[in-house]
Structures are given as C-alpha cells and as structure tokens.
Amino acid sequence: MDRLQKVIAQAGITSRRKAEVYILDGRVKVNGVVVNELGTKVSSKDTIEVDNVPISQEGSVYYLFYKPRGVISAVSDDKKRKVVTDFFTEVSERIYPIGRLDYNTSGLLLLTNDGEFSQLLTHPKNEIEKKYVAKVKGVALPHALKPLTRGLKYKGEKYAPAKYDILSTDTRAETSIVQLTIHEGKNHQVKNMLEAVGLPVQKLKREQYGNLTLGNLKPGEYRPLLKKEINQFFSK
After folding, report:
1. Catalytic residue numbers?
2. Cβ proximity of 192 and 157 under 8 Å
3. Of 11, 31, 54, which marks where a domain is finished?
4. In this structure, what CATH number is given to the domain that contains residue 229?
5. With left for phi above 0 and alpha for psi between -120 and 50, is residue 156 left, alpha or beta?
C-alpha cells in the first residue's frame, strides 16, 4: 500500500506536492469515489482517476540515454520529427525525459515515469551539476572565460556561476573545445553563456549528469539506471 499522492507522482502525472493539491481540490477519485484526504493509501488493485482520467500504476523505471543530434527531447512532435521515446520501442511504460537537450545537442539524457524523481532532479535548490563539452568558434583564453565563474546576465536572463576548462585550442582554424559545468537547466544556457563571452557554440554535447556518465553507450543507445545510481540523488 502506498500513499495516493505518491502513486500519482510515480505515474508521471505531476509532482507529489502538486498531487496533494489535486487531492485537496477534489480532482482525484479512487474506485469512482472522490478522495480528498492526504493520508489515503491505495494498492495496485485500486482504480485511480485524475480529472476523470484513469492513471496507470506502473512500476517506476529509470533510463540513461545517449541522445543523438537532430532529435527532440519530448514524447511527441507536431512536426513529425524524431523524438527521444522513438528509441524506446521495447519499453512498455509511459516514460518521458527529465529536462531537455536542444534539438542539435547530443549527450546524456535521463528518462523515467517517476514524477517525484523528475521533480527532484530538476528542482533548482538541488543544484545537480551537469557537464557539457562544446566546440566553439574562437580561441578560448582564461581571461575571456573568467566572467562565467562569477555568473552573468545575457539576453535578459541571469545565469549562476559556472566552472570551465579549456580542453584544446586550434589557432589555425580559430576554434576551441571548452568544458562547462553548470547546475541550472535554463533554455539554451550553455550556448548563451559561451556566446556572452564571445565564443559561439558550433557543437554541443552533455557528458555528465551528477555522477552519471555516458560510459560505452553510442548515440541512440540506452541502459537502465542501477539502484545505487538512483539512490545517489535521493541521498543528497
């Protein structure tokens, strides 16, 4: 038996906190009866509805995916472009990406059907580090990248301090490879931060999320997360 709000969150409907609001607002039914008590416990045999739509009480699943370039971080696309869940045809659970990577950004992306886990990883207060490697136009120099370590404002958006490492430079081609570590997840953040210091991004890849890395995965491949990998986020 699990608390009703936990079951709703694990079904990927919303976070546990919002599920509590849904219950108090009378938007949740158990076996056809409106339930508005937060202590209510349910089993897998109970039929649960949110806004009169039944939810599926699936077991929680967690996947680490190597997203290729040219793929949408979504479960569907009105322009019929390829989406990340197209690579999970053998997964029966209703999974969705945690956060997103831009269309032309490749790298590590997590998918789950656990709303509570997704909320945990994306909440700003948890400051989970994400590591990116970017090929940029221009020769990267420490004094130019220094503003990133103090945080900056660009195109009306304020970004928290980041860590950087210059992996290589090519003075002849006037390009560089820069590693940037951030703990926020704002739209186009890495591209905007590097552009703000005069280094437009030509190619971008996310290589690490918390302690998770791509390992031996190739673009388009995925693997389940190990229990200890999942627990590391809950123990923060």
Report:
1. 102
2. yes
3. 54
4. 3.30.70.580
5. left
Same-domain status, 135 and 203: yes
| Same domain flag for 166 and 133 | yes
**CATH number of residue 173's parent domain:** 3.30.70.1560
- pLDDT, tens digit only, all 236 positions of the chain: 888 988 888 776 777 888 999 999 999 999 999 999 998 999 878 999 999 988 876 678 999 999 999 999 999 888 989 999 999 999 988 889 999 999 999 999 999 988 888 888 988 888 999 999 999 999 999 999 999 999 999 999 999 999 999 999 999 999 999 999 999 989 999 999 999 999 999 999 999 999 999 999 999 999 999 999 999 887 76
Task: Supply the range of the domain harboring residue 180.
Answer: 129-209
- Number of folded domains that form the chain: 3
- Give the length of the chain: 236
Q: Which of 171, 144, 119, 149 lies closest to 8 in space, CA to CA?
A: 119
For the chain, the straight-line distance linking the first and the last C-alpha, in angstroms and rounded, comes to 26
Q: Where are the alpha helices (DSSP H) in 50-123?
A: 115-122
